[in-house]
């Protein structure tokens, strides 16, 4: 299949996945959020994941068999690690036994073109090609480790970067993957993004993404991720955002393989969101080989100039705390139940004058990065 054929195939696949799930779900309750979102509380056993034939007889796991604390977070007094705050929570809550699902219009699935869907996995796949000549569409500033990993963790600073035009996006994420070609790549991603073509606005939203051999998707837009919490909506807007030279906010994200359950758990803040069964991600059945932390911008400018879409806070790493965006307490699980600091992380910045990254290590923050930048500027024309 050529690339164009592949993208068409992807769109069909994703649309048919998400249609099936949308039509069959009758919410127990619906919540109108002040940001314009409608959150449907759908019974946990009727969530999109169970439309997937691979999960037809799946027994829902109610909790992970782990409790890992990792490095103590937030020793630096002026950053706030809130119990994860989403705008819709101000307007109501979902009952027990249900999960909040952000309602999407038909058009979302169509306009969120496949290139956006596979962009995160492109990163994992092409860490070498990413150092290519010329101006790449997909720009990355990230830290990377390679080895055998059973989990990874980070505390991610939350910002509201500007996106120049609606077919671009900016994201800050943790990515866990194995495989180097489209045909054998499995990946899991979690973080925040501003992605107007997916969410129809410029808000900073919590997202997840998974990819396996030619298919994958965001949030609960197709069947795959199994959600167990009634408190957090995937795709929901995050609030408050950090303020330049002001108050800082961040969230903890943690992805962990549970060997006894054959699943990868996702924890955000103190909340266990749910999990990806490894039956969907065969290359991640045992462990991951690449972990990446950082920012990605998708640049679609056609006038020869660099996009002004910002990464992170929109400010370069040398501005440090309260200026640039950070990720701290970067940790990996190298043996079962053992969170460790990074060994030999590599920093990748494709166009450091546009978006850059610095690596650091301290007793307060563990391994950390500052990353991001403004995009177009006199040194990045
Ligand atoms: C994935 O495919 C590439 C080339 O197609 C191959 O070199 C690599 O070993 C494969 N990796 C796995 C995990 O199967
Ligand atoms: C997002 O912001 C850009 C420019 O900042 C604006 O052109 C666009 O209309 C906004 N998109 C949405 C969906 O609000
Ligand atoms: C990018 O960051 C690295 C590491 O801190 C630094 O050595 C380099 O000078 C920076 N590049 C630019 C263009 O700012």
From TrEMBL:
Signal peptide bounds: 1-20
Top-level taxonomic group: Eukaryota
Keywords: Signal
Stretches assigned to the Neprosin PEP catalytic domain: 114-381
Entries under Gene3D superfamilies matching the protein: Outer-capsid protein sigma 3, large lobe (3.90.1320.10)
Pfam families the record matches: Neprosin, Neprosin_AP
PANTHER family registered for this protein in UniProt: NEPROSIN DOMAIN-CONTAINING PROTEIN, PROTEIN, PUTATIVE (DUF239)-RELATED-RELATED
Protein name: Protein neprosin-like
Species of provenance: Coffea arabica (Arabian coffee)
